[in-house]
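Question (not urgent): is this output format expected?
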Amino acid sequence: MKKLFTLLFSLLFTASVFAGEFPDITITDLKKAIEDKKVTVIDVNGSDSWKSGHVPTAIDFDAAGDKLAAQLPKDKGALVVAYCGGPSCGAYKAAAVKAKELGYTNVKHLAAGISGWKKAGEKTEAGK
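Got this back:
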């Protein structure tokens, strides 16, 4: 029972730490950052979804695999934004945590996700 309690506590603690660790970025602010070429965007929806349509310039997290670091900017203070399906999706955390582990200090989350991006009428890019 003690082990179960310890496991549950550590999971809750980890979830609460990560929940507030990555601030949200609005669609408007992300769109501006993309236009200004001041952001690296990471799509965590899977390669099939990425191929069918992703936020412009977004990296396919699944396809990047161990080579993600090579696709991120040299400046560890540069803006990195991760997103997944929408507000109830937590898959973005895999990319956000990975960027943080690689030393990036300005990691944000597009909570609206690809569904919010499309709902806002923003254009997507198809992958190859």
